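Hi Prof. W.,

I finally got the Melatonin receptor type 1A-A prediction working! I wasn't sure whether to trim anything, so I left the full sequence exactly as given:
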Amino acid sequence: MWVEGNIFVVSLAVADLVVAIYPYPLVLTSIFHNDWNLGYVHCQVSGFLMGVSVIGSIFNITGIAINRYCYICHSLKYDKLYSDKNSVCYVILIWALTVVAIVPNLFVGSLQYDPRVYSCTFEQSASSAYTIAVVFFHFILPIMIVTYCYLRIWILVIQVRRRVKPDNRPKLTPNDVRNFVTMFVVFVLFAVCWAPLNFIGLAVAIKPETVVPLIPEWLFVASYFMAYFNSCLNAIVYGVLNQNFRREYKRIVVSVCTARIFFQDSSNDAGERLKSKPSPLMTNNNQVKMDSV
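And this is what came out:
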């Protein structure tokens, strides 16, 4: 079991939830008002947290890929590399690098309100050099690292399945393979969802005067919302591909439905008791009549 590796999955879930807690409600508010009327501070905080979510997601996905690579391809060293203490340190390092990667936005002035997407977000044309650095270090380089890790894992899995050099290969359980496939799908969806927006940003950064007028507004809007929709997909992937998540999802749904039925039954029983209970006025009147007799 990847007990130590689960902390990276939890960390990735936190990165996905960051945008739902603060930025998304503000985006809905700006959509309803057709403008941003929440002030400069909220705009900067919203854009900063969106960046934290994005960079935190890709860094956590990279950390998960390295963790899976070490677990499968270097199993003899895994327990030493990923002890409980080391795993916590790795997660802290991921979030520290995430914050360090986002802070320059505050000095470059690249967090601005974009009326096309009703969001305070990263302005690709604010600084060409910074945009190129963001695309390379926050997308292309992590994608290359993750691709290498998963490619090596796929090769090893195929070799184990075909029994190539079985004495030198670790034994992979079906659960190991399922967990690996789940995180591989998470990585593929992230790359597919975020690639269009990053490539647009790279093109804008290289030749802003030429490229910006050529990009249709609908294309930018579609790529933007497709990128941030990725945060909603991970929970679906876990539910579809992971039996433990499916079981917990069912338990939560059953618990919610049971609680709703319980409250409805309780309210109905209370209503029936109120209907069946004689009113104090009638009881007092009957008592008066009995006394008078």
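The radius of gyration is 27 Å. Does that look reasonable to you?

Thanks,
D.
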